[in-house]
Amino acid sequence: MKNIAKVTALALGIALASGYASAEEKIAFINAGYIFQHHPDRQAVADKLDAEFKPVAEKLAASKKEVDDKIAAARKKVEAKVAALEKDAPRLRQADIQKRQQEINKLGAAEDAELQKLMQEQDKKVQEF
């Protein structure tokens, strides 16, 4: 019985000691960025991804430019009407000034609604991408 206890204690001691000895060999530092940048197939994969997503990205960029152009045109249109009203205001009656202001406000609201719709469509396209 004493021999079994001694053998068990010795086996347990060796098992624990070997675990500490091998722990030093298992510790390492890996720089994942370096590995990804220097992988042999990195350029091939990057080219494949570019070829796959480039047409869609170009469509999205063109659509964004179109929306931006429409926004700029709408702002320019409203600003032109405001400038014309400011120019003509001294010669107009108060009722005519208010009528033009209401027209400008309606135009601005309609343009804003249309632009919001376009922006929502653009956001939807981006999310689908």
Structure, described:
- This protein is mainly alpha-helical and 129 residues long.
- The protein has one domain.
- The chain contains 4 helices and no strands.
- Helix 3 packs antiparallel against helix 4.
- The longest helix is centred in the middle third of the chain and has 47 residues.
- The relative contact order is 0.07.
Beta-strand portion reads under 5%
* Total domain count: 1
Number of helices: 4
Most strands sheet? none
SSE run? HHHH
* Low-pLDDT residue intervals, each spanning 5 or more residues: none
Shape: elongated
Number of strands: 0
Query: What percent of residues adopt helix (DSSP H or I)?
Result: over 70%
Which structural traits does this protein have?
single chain, 129 residues, mainly alpha, elongated
Furnish the topology, listing elements before pairings.
Layout: H1 2-26, H2 32-37, H3 42-88, H4 94-128
Helix pairs in contact: 3-4
Short description:
The protein has helices at 2-26, 32-37, 42-88, 94-128. With 129 residues, it is mainly alpha-helical.
